[in-house]
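Entry 12.
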Amino acid sequence: MRISLLAGAATSCVAVLLLQSTAVSTAVSTAVADPAPAEQTSAGGGTVTSMSLTAAEHTVTQRATKPFSLIGVSWDDPRQSLAGTSIRVRTHRVSTGAWTAWRPLAVENEDAPDERDGRSGIRGSTAPLWTGPSDGVAVEVTPGPKGLPAGLRVELVDPGRGAASASAVRVLPAETAAARTPQDHEAPRPGIVTRAGWGADESLRETGFVYTGTVKAVFVHHTDTATDYACSDAPQMIRAIYQYHVQSNGWRDIGYNFLVDRCGTIYEGRAGGVSQPVLGAHTLGFNSDSAGVAALGTFTTEGPPQEIVDGISKIAAWKLGLTGQDAAGHTNLTSGSSQSRYPKGTVVSFDTVSGHRDAFATECPGDGLYARLDDIRSWAAHLQGR
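Predicted 3D structure (tokens):
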């Protein structure tokens, strides 16, 4: 692999990192040092390769690197904002042997743990981008008014084949109405692919669990990753997000409590029990007393498939119904961070099914998915017997 970081014009301070196999020909000029990449490996054969972005100029020799399917950028201080910074990437796809167009990374990754997450070494990070199998990358960074943070590095994630877990339950089957005793706002549990089902390497996460109080709200997200994936690729996409959250960002586990793919399949996210009030890392300031459900994909402009709407509705109806919460109702939550839309300690009224943007200054879950939240509330309430 050849790695070069091109210095841009002084007026724009643009840095471009080129990482490509020797079979790909690209002209390279002045280069900036990139120390030997650090690698972390999972039991399922996945790897996270971290490549530092530095400022010392010299020629970088060719070297090999492992394939990857997801990319992000991280930095030392999670409190440091990259507002005004532009980061975009191109990748060299294995399937086509061609370079993609430039694609932006969302520099403000608001899916984040709060103080109760209980893990040191948490890093700031962009939202990850699913690329599919790739063996080359170009990263262009244009600093904002505050410059670039210390410890800036590119994270290349290969999800591997997934950790084997022959004895664990791989899918929790959907309940039937006859299998339960009706309670206020209770809905049947939908089928859920467990962590064993998507191949989670349980040695990566923290061994203990952190629980919140009663789950009163569900916050809906999108993962800001590719939308045109095959549903059979969803497990490896989730493994890559898990590795990025834990090995690159330093979180205790994947941030979301549940994920839903474009075919409507529901996946268990953060470990600790799907029926339990597991503390997630999805809505800074309001991770307590809530659950985070993420749609796999990017819905900034386009609407989600109906299958995603149905899947989110089913898991929201069931999760809220466990504590008697009306999926079409409202609830009060207390802000745990002044980095949210509301100062710490502020009591805020939310729809029991809300979008991430309702609690944080973000576009998440995208205009397309946000516009369907009323439909999700209505269908979830119908599943609860309304």
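Annotation: Residues 1-15, 18-33, 56-64 have pLDDT under 50 and may be disordered. The longest strand covers residues 129-142.
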